[in-house]
Fold this protein.
Amino acid sequence: MTTHIVAIDQGTTSTRAVVVDANGSIVSVGQHPHEQIFPRPGWVEHDPIEIWTNTQEVIGQALGKASLTRHDVAAIGITNQRETAVVWDRATGKPVYNAIVWQDTRTQGLIDELAADGGVRRFAETTGLPLATYFSASKIAWILEHVDGARERAEAGELAFGTIDTWLLWNLTGGVDGGVHATDVTNASRTLLMNLETLDWHDELLAAFGVPRSMLPEIRSSSEVFGVARSSSLLREVPVAGILGDQQAATFGQAAFDAGESKNTYGTGNFLIVNTGEEIVRSEAGLLTTVAYRLGDEPVRYALEGSVAVTGSLVQWLRDNLGLLSSSAEVETLAASVDDSGGAVIVPAFSGLFAPYWRPDARGAIVGLTRFITKAHLSRAALESTAFQSREVFDVAQDAIAVPISELRVDGGMTANDLLMQFQADILGITVVRPRIIETTALGAAYAAGLAVGFWSSREQLRELWGEDRRWEPSMADDERERRLRLWRKAVTRTFDWVDDDTR
């Protein structure tokens, strides 16, 4: 009897397999980190083969911990870091280059060229996205131009492109032996190559970036049977039935299915998503218009998204690059040892600023330093920067929709930090709610897969599975909140115009 769903959660820093039962509870987890490759400043890469190898390993870990076999698994769901691009040889299954990660900024020159004719919103009416290095299209173009023979091979139909979901799906379902080359609408909507209205690849965009259509996967819904696993003996013949980009998966896992419902995920970066239902809502103030999900043949649901590049990775930077922390968890202890940041403000624009500014010329800065500042103050400033950045995208989202957002559902690893959650409520001035299960990304992928095979019957049933763990009410005085926000915004402006042509 099939009693569980396996969700593959392929993130920026690690790959996990999560076993979920019919009550929406997490039964077991297998996890393995992968190498972060930084060939040059601004370049970020992953090894796709390492990611696929780790995927197979963590599936075994998760099943072993739960004492389950493939016969207990009804379906597989996939969720993934979204804009990261992989190009591989269809005949050999080998990538022609490392995966270029969503944080990578090497393609800014191409973005600038395209923006010279029509500005950064040149394709926004079609895609919902500004021109930015963040998205996949310019990464594909870079690989085709810089890897010997890649363009010729791509035009001959020999190469395939995919975001990480597509790479895993292709390998799971057979790879060179008939692997399914497909993606879902949420991941396709992050490429800068899909038309939001037609839900298909757009010829004008393909021409602008020089990407052959033959490279691209088929765009399908988020919840349907894509194929069955063949390359993984542990899950052989189990259907792969759900795919959602990580932030859309977290939204689905939070049961934010309808217009006006929202969530904020705290991970490597922060991502606020507000569901807008069947309506495409375009933002002129820095938010992305994207696909929230599509179930089978149902109408697609759209969303507004505020993407913040660096939050949890700032804590990692304090730990790994500066050596201020022995572990990421230590940041809360250090931050709690002081009353405030001592006037220090960190703006972590390591890859420029994402929403709502979209300033690729910005770079990270620590301002307000005095001899008084200690590593405890910097730890607190790092946590506060997470909350400040989320407040800025929240404000823009609130302005874009008619319904007031009275509470914010949160998820992701950083929400275990109670100090951060209280400061987030204080800076937002609204209630912050953490669910019983904060691993909503994996949960959303499991839900999508389970719906497709009848493991769960409806979104209403899934909504009943959601449970609250804790909530935080704002306690900061209004004038203090405004003072803190004023200083933050002043610090942000200090990061502008840092990158020149000779400093990129």
Summary: Residues 375-400 form the longest helix (26 residues). The mean pLDDT is 93. The chain has 16 helices and 23 strands. Residues 398 and 405 are 7 Å apart (CA to CA).
